[in-house]
């Protein structure tokens, strides 16, 4: 039995093995969010945040792009609304993140000041800074098409991660933490 | 209560499957006759348990027990009874349970009807099947249990996806899954043979009926899936090269190669390695398909709700099954006895050519399907591969297959001369050339090629049958009598090829379709393809769980009434979703296809009209192929212990089977 | 009859010819028919040549959808945006039922001559196996996607008092 003939019989196994490794890697990337075949990729990921200026609400100061880009630590920008139930669902987890030292800046999407105040009073306020986007135009510029959505901004203003879903613990552990670790 | 019992029955089935796999594979080594007989009994009881479990889930759907999360998410109290039953498999968890049920049915069938197979081989086959069953049931129980409960139960269920509320749901998944899963038997035979270290003619004879049954169901499943999307999606398309469709086509291609090469193993004791590898490959492709669709790796309009965690579990199952079998193959296959001798120009040679081309087409489809995710993985580029890619690669590659399909059956075993074989097909060649010329003159190049090829295959299949009954060479009555005495497998083969030709005819005909989109007000009409389409009225209508707007279209031709068509748009109140119900009118050789998209502001609406020449032939051809397979199965050689009566006097020098 | 070795050689040659044909066909097909996906920003930056087919995907910009008829056939114009650029799209035909303002779509087509508009031959709106249409009721139950088409959001102050039926009633009313 020639050696080359023996090797030929092992070829299918090798090919399948390579494929299996590839599939495993694809699955892993799906969990961390770097491969998502269904998504509508937010086009901002990998780019700088768009130019914007948003007013504050209820006596607080808003923020704009230069301020955001000048931060020395990563910032989690969270689009939310008082009328959005899953935003209330993610509120306790945002609270936990804020207490763990993550800078969270909130943008209230198409909302009214009184309602925002009521919401924050009820569910807690994890936001280091808070701005409001009553028309939703800035949200469109960010590629947001619903709430809640969150973006991780690296120092300098580049968007490095995005999720169009509530920040539940699985997403925080599987996606947000690795993304933040990649920045440090 | 009953769902809990169903869950328990499932766990019990898993335990039985584990026992079946251990006893099945280890049994022959212990040479204890009692143990050897246990495996079939275990296989049958596993099926009974799974059957009970599945019935429990169906029951929960029928009575709308919303404490079962699967029922709450995918059914509702307003869903009609048929879809409360069939919606059981219209979602991920329920369909995997159906998969397990059919897998256990395969084992039970081998246990109950495989008495002609040597005991030790049968025991190993059941052991392998038990192992696969156990893996999948473990997956269901661990990660994807349809019996998961929620409390408090919601008042209303979310309802069955409106697009799935169609009689097709009752038919398509079970048939398709039987095809997919059925190849596990051929797989188990291959693995068992590798364990035993022996593949002989008898192995070919045992594998072939099991492979044929699966192939038959898979053909019907794919055929029906195509028909379903044709009349449900409202575009008049029947095949989109969508990843989910491709993963159904792949095992069909290698399965076709398998049933052909099993013939050679049976008759000539050749192509053993090839057949074993094909049997492993076909079921592996089925498993891969399950993985790809349910893990969410592929972007498809048929998307199943998927999660990477489930995908990982299935990937591990795949690694063990496919990796294990191929490892066994790498070590044991070289020891299989070397193949019998034959010349390249012979029926064996033609069958090898057939296998090569089927496998190459499968490889191309596989590459096209996997190209986007792997390109993203390796080079971080996002692209998508669509129908044009497959049209440019697969269609040319079917040309040699079509040419060879008519010639192969004309050739004799071991050594054949090409010219006489081709001469017998002169009639087919002439008609094909005429058809080709007729359509080329009208400027339809692709249709000309397709129709000519289809005619070549169809007439070739009929000539094959004519040769066997010695049509025109003996009195007509004798030819007719011969029809009942020639091996049924021969009739099945002719029918199979004929069916393929008819399907190709339909596909080529569809390339000649005409369509238009129009806004019509009541009383207005347009002309398309020789027919006149007139909008009579638009009125509200009502279904069980939907409200509809129904348009009435009168179709006439040269002033003669042809048909009244009623396309609708439907609005499902539960999910607030709008769907389009196309109206299709067929006369066997062409379809009229009308869709109504919605009202406009002036009392009329937007319409799309199509004429699909030869469309019914696509699915008719598929059914005839499956019928050929079914007739082959009734061949007396496959029946248990029936003696072969030697009624025919053997003429010399001609192609016999 | 030839020896086993020679026959094996013939088989290998046949496989080789078949495989190379297949590979050649694939390479040719890849080059000419892969439809690349571009976002509006990429289209605005790269100006694909007129007639070159590609996929354009993004969000249907609200308040830009205009429907009309041209020669008796229905046509629709709208703009697709990704937040950074927006491209006008012209589509002749029947829009899929899932097409809505403020929602994601993928269109297949090519830029018209003069690089002004995208002529779409197909418009696709996606759905999954669990049908989660973006209307207010489902949005409030699951992932909070809100469709601007369905009107302004409800007042949050009265939120917690409403039962699911009341929410539904207020959204439909």
Automatic annotation (TrEMBL), chain A:
Q: Say yes or no: keyword Aminoacyl-tRNA synthetase present.
A: no
Annotated Thioredoxin domain ranges read 43-184
Which top-rank group of organisms is this from? Bacteria
Which GO terms fall under biological process for this protein?
cytochrome complex assembly
State a single Pfam family of this protein: Redoxin
State the SUPFAM superfamilies in the record: Thioredoxin-like
Keywords, alphabetical: Cytochrome c-type biogenesis, Disulfide bond, Redox-active center
Location comes to: Cell envelope
Q: Which GO terms describe its molecular function?
A: disulfide oxidoreductase activity
Please provide one cellular component term from the Gene Ontology annotations of this protein.
Answer: outer membrane-bounded periplasmic space
Q: Which family is it part of? A: Belongs to the thioredoxin family. DsbE subfamily.
Which named protein is this? Alkyl hydroperoxide reductase/ Thiol specific antioxidant/ Mal allergen
* Organism from which the protein derives: Acidiphilium cryptum (strain JF-5)
UniProtKB/TrEMBL annotation, chain B:
Q: Which InterPro entries match?
A: CcmF_C (IPR032523), Cyt_c_assembly (IPR002541), Cyt_c_biogenesis (IPR003567), Cyt_c_biogenesis_CcmF (IPR003568)
The Cytochrome c assembly protein domain, residue ranges: 89-296
Q: Where are the transmembrane segments?
A: 6-30, 42-62, 96-113, 125-144, 175-195, 207-228, 248-265, 277-297, 309-331, 352-374, 394-413, 425-441, 447-466, 486-512
Membrane topology of this protein: Multi-pass membrane protein
Q: Source organism lineage?
A: Bacteria, Pseudomonadati, Pseudomonadota, Alphaproteobacteria, Acetobacterales
Q: Where in the cell is it found?
A: Cell inner membrane
Chief localization class? membrane
Organism annotation:
Acidiphilium cryptum (strain JF-5)
Q: Name one matching Pfam family.
A: CcmF_C
The record's comment on protein family reads: Belongs to the CcmF/CycK/Ccl1/NrfE/CcsA family.
Source organism's superkingdom? Bacteria
One of the entry's Gene Ontology molecular-function terms is: heme binding
What function does this protein fulfil? Required for the biogenesis of c-type cytochromes. Possible subunit of a heme lyase.
What is the protein name given in its UniProt record? Cytochrome c assembly protein
Instruction: Name the Gene Ontology biological process terms.
Output: cytochrome complex assembly
Cite the Cytochrome c-type biogenesis protein CcmF C-terminal domain residue spans from the record: 315-636
List the keywords (alphabetical).
Cell inner membrane, Cell membrane, Cytochrome c-type biogenesis, Membrane, Transmembrane, Transmembrane helix
A cellular-component GO term for this protein: plasma membrane
């Amino acid at each position: 039995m020639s050696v080359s003939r023996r090797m030929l019989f092992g070829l299918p196994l090798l090919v399948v093995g390579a494929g299996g490794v590839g599939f495993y890697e694809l699955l892993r990337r799906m969990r961390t969010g770097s491969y998502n075949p269904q998504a509508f990729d937010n086009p901002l990921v990998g780019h700088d945040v768009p130019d914007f200026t948003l007013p504050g609400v209820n006596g607080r100061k808003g923020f704009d792009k230069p301020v955001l880009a000048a931060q020395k630590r990563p910032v989690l920008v969270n689009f939310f609304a008082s009328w959005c139930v899953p935003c209330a669902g993610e509120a306790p987890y945002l609270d936990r993140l804020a207490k763990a030292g993550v800078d969270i800046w909130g943008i209230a999407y198409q909302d009214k000041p009184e309602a925002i105040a009521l919401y924050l009073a009820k569910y807690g306020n994890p936001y280091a800074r808070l701005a409001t986007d009553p028309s939703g135009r800035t949200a469109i510029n960010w590629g947001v098409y619903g709430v809640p959505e969150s973006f991780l901004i690296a120092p300098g203003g580049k968007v490095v991660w995005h999720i169009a879903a509530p920040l539940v613990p699985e997403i925080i552990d599987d996606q947000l933490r690795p993304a933040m670790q990649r920045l440090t | 209560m009953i769902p809990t019992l169903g869950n328990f029955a499932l766990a019990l089935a898993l335990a039985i499957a584990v026992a079946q796999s251990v006893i099945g594979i280890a049994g022959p080594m212990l040479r204890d006759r009692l143990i050897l007989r246990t495996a079939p009994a275990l296989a049958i009881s596993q099926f009974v348990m799974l059957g009970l479990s599945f019935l429990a889930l169906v029951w929960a759907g029928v009575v709308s027990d919303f404490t079962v999360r699967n029922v709450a998410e995918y059914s509702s109290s307003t869903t009609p009874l048929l879809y409360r039953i069939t919606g059981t498999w219209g979602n991920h968890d329920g369909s995997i349970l159906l998969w397990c049920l059919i897998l256990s049915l395969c084992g039970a069938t081998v246990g109950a009807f495989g008495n002609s197979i040597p005991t030790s081989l049968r025991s190993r086959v059941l052991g392998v099947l038990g192992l696969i069953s156990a893996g999948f049931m473990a997956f269901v129980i661990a990660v994807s249990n349809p019996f998961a409960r929620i409390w408090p139960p919601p008042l209303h269920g979310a309802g069955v996806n409106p697009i799935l509320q169609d009689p097709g749901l009752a038919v398509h998944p079970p048939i398709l899954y039987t095809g997919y899963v059925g190849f596990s038997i051929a797989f188990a035979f291959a693995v068992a043979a590798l364990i035993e270290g022996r593949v002989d003619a008898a192995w070919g004879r045992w594998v072939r009926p099991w492979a044929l049954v699966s192939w038959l169901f898979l053909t019907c499943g794919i055929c029906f899936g195509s028909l379903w999307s044709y009349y449900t999606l409202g575009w008049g398309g029947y095949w989109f090269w969508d990843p989910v469709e491709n993963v159904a086509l792949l095992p069909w291609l290698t399965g076709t190669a398998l049933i052909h090469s099993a013939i050679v193993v049976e008759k000539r004791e050749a192509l053993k390695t090839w057949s074993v590898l094909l049997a492993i490959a076909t079921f592996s492709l089925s498993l891969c398909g399950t993985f790809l669709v349910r893990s969410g790796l592929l972007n498809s309009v048929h998307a199943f709700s998927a999660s990477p965690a489930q995908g990982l579990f299935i990937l591990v199952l795949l690694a063990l099954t496919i990796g294990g079998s191929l490892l066994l193959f790498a070590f044991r296959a070289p020891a299989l006895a070397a193949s019998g001798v034959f010349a390249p120009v012979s029926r064996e040679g033609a069958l090898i050519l057939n296998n090569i081309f089927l496998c190459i087409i499968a490889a191309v489809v596989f590459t096209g399907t996997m190209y986007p995710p792997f390109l993203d993985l390796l080079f971080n580029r996002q692209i998508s591969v669509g129908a044009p890619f497959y049209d440019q690669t697969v269609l040319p590659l079917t040309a040699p297959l079509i040419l060879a399909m008519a010639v192969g059956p004309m050739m004799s075993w071991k050594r054949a001369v090409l010219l006489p074989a081709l001469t017998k097909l002169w009639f087919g060649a002439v008609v094909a050339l005429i058809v080709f010329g007729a359509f080329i003159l009208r400027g339809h190049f692709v249709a000309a090629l397709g129709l000519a090829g289809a005619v070549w295959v169809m007439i070739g299949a009929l000539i094959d049958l004519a040769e066997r009954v010695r049509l025109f060479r003996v009195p007509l009555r004798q030819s007719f009598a011969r029809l009942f005495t020639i091996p049924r497998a021969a009739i099945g083969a002719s029918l199979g090829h004929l069916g393929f030709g008819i399907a190709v005819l339909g596909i080529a005909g569809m390339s000649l379709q005409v369509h238009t989109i129009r806004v019509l007000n009541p009383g207005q009409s347009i002309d398309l393809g020789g027919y006149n389409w007139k909008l009579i009225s638009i009125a509200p209508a009502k279904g069980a769980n939907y409200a509809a707007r129904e348009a009435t279209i009168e179709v006439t031709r040269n002033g003669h009434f042809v048909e009244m068509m009623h396309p609708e748009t439907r609005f499902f109140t539960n999910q607030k979703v709008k769907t389009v119900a196309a109206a299709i009118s067929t006369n066997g050789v062409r379809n009229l296809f009308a869709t109504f998209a919605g009202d406009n502001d002036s009392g009329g609406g937007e319409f799309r009209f199509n004429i699909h020449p030869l469309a019914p032939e696509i699915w008719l051809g598929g059914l005839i192929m499956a019928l050929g397979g079914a007739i082959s199965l009734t061949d007396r050689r496959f029946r248990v212990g029936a003696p072969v009566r030697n009624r025919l006097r053997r003429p010399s020098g001609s192609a016999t089977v | 009859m030839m020896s086993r070795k020679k026959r094996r050689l013939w088989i290998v040659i046949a496989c080789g010819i078949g495989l190379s044909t297949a590979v050649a066909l694939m390479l040719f097909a890849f080059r000419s028919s892969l439809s690349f996906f571009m976002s509006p920003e990429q289209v605005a930056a790269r100006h694909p040549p007129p007639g070159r087919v590609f996929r354009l995907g993004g969000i249907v910009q609200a308040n830009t959808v205009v429907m009309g008829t041209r020669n008796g056939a229905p046509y629709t114009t709208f703009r697709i945006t990704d937040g950074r650029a927006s491209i006008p799209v012209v589509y002749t035909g029947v829009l899929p039922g899932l097409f809505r303002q403020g929602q994601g779509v993928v269109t297949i087509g090519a830029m018209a001559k003069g690089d002004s508009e995208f002529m779409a031959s197909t418009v696709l709106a996606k759905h999954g196996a669990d049908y989660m249409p973006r209307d207010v009721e489902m949005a409030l139950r699951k992932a909070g996607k809100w469709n601007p088409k369905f009107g302004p959001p409800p007042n949050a102050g009265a939120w917690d008092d409403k039962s699911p039926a009341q929410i539904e009633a207020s959204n439909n009313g």
